Amino acid sequence: MAKTRRAIQNQTNRTLDRGDLGALLGFAATHSEQSVCRKTRAYAGGLPIDIAQAKLDLNGPNAVSETVENPTVIRFLKCFASPFTLILLALAAISYITNVVLAPSGEQDPTTVIIIAIMVLISGIIDFVQSSRGASAAAALLQMVTATTRVRRRPINFDDFEVSHTETPHDDSATDGASHSATDSVPHTDAATDGASHASTDTADTSNAGSSFDKEIPFADVVVGDLVLLASGDMVPADCRVLDAKDLFVNETALTGESEPVEKFPTVVHARRRADGTRYPLSLSECTNLLFAGTTVQSGSATAVVVATGDDTYVGRMSALLRQPATKTSFDVGLASVSKVLVAFMLVMCPIVFIVNGVMKGAWLDALLFSVSVAVGITPQMLPVIVTTCLSRGATQMAKQDVIVKTPSAIQNLGAIDILCTDKTGTITADEVILERHLNVLGEEDEYVLRYAFLNSYFQTGLRNLIDSAIINATGQLTDINNLINSYTKVDEVPFDFERRRMSVVVEDVTNNTHMITKGAVEEILAVCTSVNFKTHISPLTNAQRQDILRRVHDLNHEGMRVVAVAQKDNPRPVGEFCVDDEADMTLIGYLAFLDPPKASAAEAIKKLGEKGVCVKVLTGDNEGVAAAVCKKVGITVDALLLGEEVENLSEDALRKRVEQTQLFAKLSPMQKARVVEALRKNSHVVGFMGDGINDAAAMRASDVGISVDTAVDVAKESADIILLQKDLLVLERGVEEGRRTYGNTIKYIKATASSNFGNVLSVMVASILLPFLPMSALQLLLLGLAYTLTCIAIPWDTVDGSFLARPRSWDARSITGFMLWIGPVSSLFDVLTFALMFFVISPAIAGGTWAELAAAGNTTGQALFIAAFQTGWFVESMWTQTFVLHALRTEKLPFIQSRPSAALMILTVAGIAAVSVLPYLPKVSEALGLVGLPMSFFGWLLALMLGYLVLISIVKALYVRRKGSLL
Question: What is residue 23's predicted lDDT score, i.e. its pLDDT?
Answer without folding.
Answer: 72
